[in-house]
Design a protein that fits this description.
The protein is mainly α and 181 residues long. The protein is built from 9 helices and 3 strands, in the order βαβαβααααααα.
Length: 181
């Protein structure tokens, strides 16, 4: 059956959005979030109804990544769907490390940190926020998989006059993954 959408936990962290991106790679398209589920506990009957409707629940009910003994929802989905590439391996490693240490929230302008803050603002639509971060994760995977890869270094970017001011603002992010650099 074709995948028509996903269900995410309410205010999903970056790991759950990365898992959604992997489901989208299998589906071959951006998928709508059918619902934001309020609690990680979910009756198996509900999960089965979603599945029969072509909806992929992420990290809910009995399929929590902790219970599977893996480091992230992204890793759980990658294994479940049989996905593997250099980009997916790097994404899985980053999400697992972030779940253990919070590493992706430790840089200035870090998307994982900004995501959490945006959820608290009443003017931001959770569907749009998760979709935009999903776009960034799709781009990350394309670069990590060598699809149109361009090497970036701080020095090469500083040669661009229009970027110098921007680089000064984001310098403290140390060109870390999922930061504006």
């Amino acid at each position: 059956m074709a995948i028509k959408g996903v269900v995410l936990l309410h205010k999903p962290p970056i790991d759950k959005i990365a898992a959604k991106v992997l489901v989208e790679r299998v589906a071959g398209k951006v998928l709508p979030v059918v619902a934001f589920w309020a609690h990680p506990v979910c009756p198996q009957g509900q999960i089965e109804r979603w599945r029969s409707d072509g909806v992929f629940p992420i990290d809910l009910g009995a399929e929590k990544y902790h219970q599977a003994g893996v480091g992230s929802a992204t890793e759980f989905v990658a294994r479940k769907l049989g996905l593997d590439s250099p980009g997916i391996r790097r994404l899985v490693a980053l999400m697992g490390e972030n779940n253990r240490t919070g590493s992706l929230k430790s840089y200035n302008f870090a998307m994982a940190w900004v995501l959490r803050e945006l959820y608290e603002l009443p003017t931001y639509d959770h569907y749009e926020v998760t979709g935009r971060l999903g776009d960034a994760i799709h781009a990350f995977l394309r670069v990590e998989n060598g699809e149109g890869r361009v090497e970036r270094t701080q020095e090469s970017l500083e040669d661009e006059p229009r970027l110098r001011e921007y680089l000064e603002m984001v310098r403290e992010s140390n060109f870390a993954p999922f930061t504006p650099s």
